[in-house]
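We store amino acids, tokens; thus:
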Amino acid sequence: MKLQNLIHILILIACIAFLSKAQAVGPDTDGSIPGSNNGEGVGVLVTRTTGVWNTGTGFEALSQLTAGNQNTATGLRALTNDTNGGFNTATGVFSLFSNTSGFFNSATGAYSLANNISGIHNTADGYAALYRNTADDNTASGFGALYHNTDGNSNTAVGANALFANTSGEENTAVGNAALGNNPPGDFNTAVGSIALLNTTGGGNTAVGRGALATNTTGGNNTAIGNSALVGSTGSNNTCLGAGAGNFVTTASNVICIGSIGANVSNSCFIGNIYGNVQPIVGTDPDSVTITSVGRLGRGNVSSRRYKHDIKPMEKASEALYSLKPVSFRYNKEYDTTQTLAFGLIAEEVAEVYPDLVGRNPKGEPESVRYEQINAMLLNEFLKEHRKVQEQEATIAELKKDFHATVAQLTARLEGQAAQIQKVSAQIEARRSAPQVVLNNP
């Protein structure tokens, strides 16, 4: 059976009940009534005593009013039971029929606000809008909008059957055909779009787009923006943006989907059109993205002096690297189904050696290793070793220079000594070659 047909049947039954309550038909009112009142129709304003500035048009409109002021009733038995309510406007058959002491209500449409008794600040525009209402500060515009609302306050429904099933839920806003149509006691929900948030008991949800969060039942604090976004979810604290975003999120909670259908994994984040968009970090334009433990995103590759203070040489700080223990490992299967062999460091071990080299989670536990800092420390150690090599090479060059000078000196000395030896040798040889003179004795 269609919802509209059901409403018609319910109202027909109610009409029979209302008619059974009818008083004897009063006299025909025609024209002005004391107190600046005006009536037109059988039984209109017939019990008025002190009420002023009231206007009734239609069979038994405002027929029970005594002291109420500034009411306007147009239609069969519109505001018929009002006694001392004021500033009400009822237009349509049985509109504001049961109101007795409610103030500042406006009902436009047959059976709109028909059961309101003492509720105030309600506005109903449409056939059977706010039909069962007895609460305050509700606004309903559309066929059957907020039809079942009884004691829920501060609701706004715009569209046929919007917030139709709401009974006691408060501060809900529904804009669109059947938006929040199944919500009975849920509070603080916002639905904009046809059949958005066909909610039952969940609270604090926001759905914008046709069918967004359409089948949500008990999930709360979800945000879905886009046609059919989070359409099948019953989880809580999910945020999805884009047409069909989050459609694979069914029971999971704390999921963020931006332009992605996501997956049914709690405490996860999915962003579409990233993996296939290859952008190597080359040249001077592309950059890396970082994220803090509180979820703040930012550009990570910044090294300008503009961002730094307390700048000083690293010196011996990099020597902590010699105490680190590189290992091979595999990530747990829930993080890496391929079980690929990996190499790196253990954050807890690094924290024992140099606490500033680890990133920590919100609990203060070691979570990651700042490998980019290790690269800078490795560079410092390389430069230190390079300077040592340069100093050693300079020393060796100096030693070579001294060695060559010494060799030259020794060579010169040896050459001089050789020349002396040669000279002496020549003299000796000359002496050996000289003729010997023999003296004869007389």
Summary: The longest strand covers residues 28-33.
